[in-house]
């Protein structure tokens, strides 16, 4: 009998926890945002070519300009996310 009570107690204690099924946590920061803040060394909310190159040294001015659609010499999150998308969908770079 004791064990039955124990089970009942556990069930009661557990109920509120189970009741509040946590809604799926909002995708914390998106991957793009995370990458963006990683690149944004001075945290001004935009990426300069220097900042991008600090992380990805093979990035050229031409690459940068391609995605700097408003020619502000800085990438906004929107511009950067386009770049990331393009990078993601590009074929894997050759090894070596
Ligand atoms: Ca910056």
Number of strands: 0
Largest sheet: none
H/E series, N to C? HHHHH
Ends distance: 69 Å
CATH class of the domain at 31-89: Mainly Alpha
What is the number of helical segments per DSSP (H or I, 4+ residues)? 5
Ions, cofactors and other bound molecules: calcium ion
Low-confidence stretches: none
CATH architecture assignment name of the domain at 31-89: Orthogonal Bundle
CATH homologous group name of the domain at 31-89: EF-hand
CATH topology of the domain at 31-89: Recoverin, domain 1
Percent strand equals: under 5%
Shape: elongated
Q: Compute the CA-based radius of gyration.
A: 24 Å
Helix content: 55-70%
Structural class: mainly alpha
Average pLDDT number: 83
Give a written overview of the molecule.
By secondary structure, the chain is mainly alpha-helical. It has a domain at 31-89: Recoverin, domain 1, CATH 1.10.238.10. Helix content is 56%, strand content 0%. The chain has five helices and no strands. The protein is elongated, with a radius of gyration of 24 Å. The structure holds calcium ion. Calcium ion binds next to loops.
Which helices and strands, and how do they pair?
Blueprint: H1 2-19, H2 31-39, H3 49-55, H4 61-67, H5 77-89
Quick recap of the structure?
With 96 residues, this protein is mostly helical. It has helices at residues 2-19, 31-39, 49-55, 61-67, 77-89.
List keywords for this structure.
96 residues, mainly alpha, Recoverin, domain 1, 56% helix, 0% strand, binds calcium ion
